[in-house]
Design a protein that fits this description.
mainly beta; elongated
Length: about 80
């Protein structure tokens, strides 16, 4: 008797309801303070040593393919960042 292979489908994948993208997303933070610390190299160029950020506004989620706002899925997105 031949064994049948079952395809596994991940049911918790986030996908854009507008274009069905399930690969690329981005967040935009409003009212953010970003502080970057630099060290100067011997040749006069600079290298970033550290960076701190403080977000005072909201953070929005967007589809990386079509650019639609996906705030309705933002909580789920944040839960799945490891």
């Amino acid at each position: 008797m031949a064994s049948k292979s079952k395809s596994t489908k991940i049911v918790n994948l986030l996908s854009c309801p507008f274009c069905e993208n399930s690969k690329e997303f981005f967040e935009v933070a409003e009212d953010a303070l970003i502080t970057t610390y630099y060290g100067q190299n011997e040749d006069g160029s600079f290298t970033a040593n550290d960076q701190n950020s403080e977000i005072m506004g909201s953070v929005r989620l967007y589809c990386g393919n079509c650019g639609e706002n996906l705030d309705a899925f933002h909580d789920r997105f944040r839960e799945m960042i490891f």
